[in-house]
Each structure stands twice: as structure tokens, then as C-alpha cells.
Design brief:
Blueprint (H helix, E strand, L loop, with lengths): L1 E8 L6 H14 L3 E8 L10 E7 L2 H9 L1 H13 L2 E8 L1
Antiparallel strand pairs: 1-3, 1-4, 2-3
Length: 93
């Protein structure tokens, strides 16, 4: 199993709920996704990230297919438009 953990920081924190929902919705339309857990930050401090993703894929190849999927690319473009930054870690589980 291949796992990703991503933290997202919005330029405007009020964008976080919408972006988190759009991200969670990818699970329903991209078949390579095994699981997606998306959570909003509960603290809202200056050092907090705004939302997170824990995702699993059956294989690294499934993850690669997800990355190049046009629907995922649309999400990334929306992130760029809104100034959303992300940091991630990927690993085999």
C-alpha cells in the first residue's frame, strides 16, 4: 500500500472548507484512490495548516496515475488560483 499525507495552507483561510470538500470529492471520481481522509484544522493558529489529507493507494503506480489524472490536475490549478500551498510526505505502508 502507498500512503500520502498532505498539509494545505490557504492564502485566505476561508477557502479551506470549500477546497477540503473538493479534495474529498476526488475520492468518488478517481478510481485509483483507495481512501481519502480530509480534515479541517481545529485551532486556526498562525502556525496551523488549514486542512489535511491522508490518502492511500494500492500501489505507487496507482498514485502516479492519480497525479496525472485530469480531474486532479484541475484541483491543483484551483489551488494555484487561490494561493493554496502544500507540503507532503509519501511512503509505503
Amino acid at each position: 500500500m502507498f500512503k500520502i499525507v498532505v498539509l494545505f495552507k490557504c492564502e485566505d483561510r476561508t477557502d479551506a472548507p470549500v477546497m477540503a470538500k473538493l479534495l474529498k470529492d476526488l475520492e468518488m471520481v478517481i478510481e485509483e484512490i483507495n481512501t481519502f481522509e480530509v480534515n479541517l484544522d481545529a485551532l486556526g493558529t498562525e502556525t496551523s495548516y488549514d486542512y489535511s489529507l491522508e490518502g492511500t493507494f494500492n500501489t505507487y503506480e496507482d498514485y502516479q496515475s492519480y497525479i496525472i489524472n485530469p480531474i486532479h490536475k484541475e484541483y491543483v490549478e484551483k489551488m494555484k488560483e487561490l494561493g493554496v500551498k502544500a507540503v507532503k510526505v509519501c511512503f509505503n505502508k
